[in-house]
Amino acid sequence: MTAGPVSIVTSRVRPEQVREASLVVIIALLIVFFATQIDGYLSGTTFTRISASFAIVAVLAVGQTLVVLTRNVDLSVGSIVGLIAYGVGTLLGSFQDLPPVLVIGLCLVLGGVLGAINGVIVSWGRVPAIVTTLGTLAIFRVLLVELSGSKTVTTESLPTWVVDLPRVDLLTIGTLDIRPLVVIALAVAVVFQLGLRYLPFGRRLFAIGSNPDGAQLVGMPVKRDVFLAFTLSGALAGLAGFMFLSRFGNITVAAGLGLELQAVAAVVVGGVNIFGGIGSIGGAVLGAFLIDLLSQSLTRMEAVSEFTRDALLGLLILLAVASDSVILARLRAGWQSARAREMARRETEGAVVG
Amino acid sequence: MADVRRFLRTWEGLLLALLVVIVLANASTVQGYLQPQNQVNLLTLGIEKAIVALVMAFVIIGGEIDLSVASIMGLAAILFAWAIDQGTAPEIAVLLALGVGLLCGLNNAFWVAVVGLPSLAVTLAGLIGYRGLALMLIEDGSLGGFPDWFETLGQGRLIGPIPFAVLFFFVLLIIAAVVLHRTGFGRLVYVVGNSTAVARFSGVRVSRVKAALFIMSGLVAAAAGLLLAARFGSVRGSIAQGFELDVITIVLFGGVSIFGGRGSMLGVFLSILVILNLRNGLSLLGVSGNSQTGVIGALLILSVLLPNVISDLRRYLARRSLRGATPSDPVPTPGGAT
User: Fold this and answer.
1) Contact present, A319 and A305 (Cβ < 8 Å)
2) Residue A64's CB: how many other CB atoms inside 10 A?
3) Biggest alpha carbon distance in chain A?
4) Are B158 and B133 contained in the same domain?
5) Do B308 and B174 share a structural domain?
């Protein structure tokens, strides 16, 4: 039994892992590059700062991945973040001594309800996801404007534990502080990555995105699963809303505006195929990190104006998608033919033995 | 008479009925609503989006989407203002602005039509990137001081009460309707939008059609950006930000299918009138601009949801009435249901 070098690689490594590895390499190269350009870049403080802003987009990217895997998209998350941050912020202003568990649970449930509205309309109303969430993007934002009457939530009105949460140091390594928000984000990512990998529901999301009609024909509960993906995306957006409230404290009607685009960008850079069926949570989180690393570092470079950030970000997304479709599509094809050869070889061997 | 009835059953017919209801409701509550001046005013307020919507209809019928139009509008407007500020002749500045729109369109076209990337991802990159380029020019300042003729173009009246932009819109509308419904290229757009594979096997040069769509979209978006700059009289970094959502809403509400291959210019035109009249009526009733956006978001969802729910309901009722007689009979599809 001698397996060729190709088949060893193909049996141990998946194309998604190549993608994640290349993101890690790109991130490492960028860090080295910025270290040569910015004085005192390689300190814990840099990464403490990046981790704070990255956490919110990472949580949204996890939810977005679930939805995009099923060949849908959720553009309403930015408005859900704003609505939850404002609503719960107002509530906390009146009831200072609500227990933290209840507050976070409430964010998850309220976000989940908003996500479920998207899910019902997409799954049972058969309205395309982009139409539905474009509509609810506007509707949820209007709810926020109407509810607030253009008043704002202020840091002073919030209980101290909410405001202090992003500044607590759970663990300090040198000057790098590990703070709760980034721990929440990473915990969410790990839980959902495991769920996607090992739960039947997670596997079904891939099947639905690869071939919705096929998944329906083999008897998968496609509608229910798509509904659940939207509900989970909403619930995670609710959690992100709490994190937003905790990080910024002052919540206006513009809170969370445009976050949906950042989440979609993170997912796309992270190698989740916009047509569904391919991708991983790890990739999406790395994508969110890469984008944040870039924008945080560029603002600190003296030679570069901070206003070049978005232009570079656009270029980055384009390159990420292009490399994904050109290079990884070939890799994937190679993978499949190697698998097919391996299976054919095993079959002939089996025939000889039997 | 039968033709009229059939028309009223179509989406365009429904839009027309809706338009009549909205206009009558507005006219009965607000004095002078139907006066030409008010009608021209309400059209002027959304004219740039309406212009871009005409081309967006082509893109979506062709089975693609262009999220970058608002950023191209912004980039063109800001490049124009920046060039004027640098002392360029205004005529050259206009050409520069249109040129940058063309380049953005070419860039989108290259990645979608030649490389074959999904347009949602490419134009999302464009949405962020083109706005980024514009921000590099203007940073957080604002630029103004346009030549008089340029401002007159945006604010003055050209013929009677009609400003240049509205006239431009109607000329473009006629061209768009003729090209989409009466030329070979228009048919190709439908074919490509219905199925890229079928189009390719029928010998249609799919990538050429798609490239043409994105180049057109970039150029027209730049022109609309210039008109917006002329109407405002000055530009900031956030000019036209978020317009892509309004434009797509107009097109989809006009009965164009997000999956491509279906839709008509008449529907898009009626949708523009309905949305502008609705916005105008709501603001006359004292509803804020933000809340109007919510109403339009709800309309967008309902425009797809209602026909689906009605057809589900009909099928359910048909099945129930059949169950007593011959349970194994196939369920007849009621007329008009999709």
Assistant:
1) no
2) 32
3) 79
4) yes
5) no
The DSSP symbol for A326 reads I
Q: B332 pLDDT exceeds 70?
A: no
**Which residues of chain B are within 8 Å of residue A127 when distances are taken between CB atoms?**
301, 304-305, 308
Smallest CA-to-CA distance from A277 within A189, A353, A210 is with: A210
How confident is the prediction for chain B on average, in pLDDT?
88
Quote the tokens at residue B85: 């500020």
Interface test with B, best of A83, A310, A323, A325 (most B CBs within 10 A): A310
The pLDDT score that the predictor gives to residue A352 is 61
Q: B308: exposed, middle or buried (C-beta count within 10 Å: 0-12, 13-18, 19+)?
A: middle
A129/B contact by beta carbon, under 8 A: no
CA–CA dist A299, A306 (Å, integer): 5
In SS3 terms, A20-43 reads as HHHHHHHHHHHHHHHHHHCCCCCC
Q: Report chain A residues whose CB lies below 8 A from the CB of B128.
A: 261, 265, 310, 313-314, 317
- Three-class SS of B61-103: HCCCCCCCHHHHHHHHHHHHHHHHHCCCCHHHHHHHHHHHHHH
Please indicate, yes or no, if residue B333 is contained in any of the structural domains.
no
B133 shares its domain with B215: yes
Phi, then psi, of B144 in degrees rounded to 5:
-150, -145
Q: Which domain holds residue B32?
A: 28-286
- Ordered mean pLDDT values, 10 residues apiece, chain A (354 residues): 57 74 88 86 81 90 97 95 94 89 96 97 93 91 84 86 83 79 94 95 95 93 97 98 92 88 90 88 93 83 75 84 76 79 79 58
pLDDT tens figures, B254-305 = 989 888 999 999 999 999 999 999 888 888 888 877 788 888 889 889 888 8
Q: What's the pLDDT tens digit per position in B177-226?
A: 999 999 999 999 999 999 999 999 999 999 999 999 999 999 999 999 99
d(CA A278, CA A19): 11
Q: What is the pTM of this model?
A: 0.85
CATH number for B70: 1.10.3470
Number of C-beta neighbours around residue A280 at 10 A:
22
DSSP tag of B331: P
Q: How many CA atoms lie within 13 A of A325 on its CB side?
A: 19
Whether the CB-CB separation of A328 and A15 falls below 8 Å is answered with yes
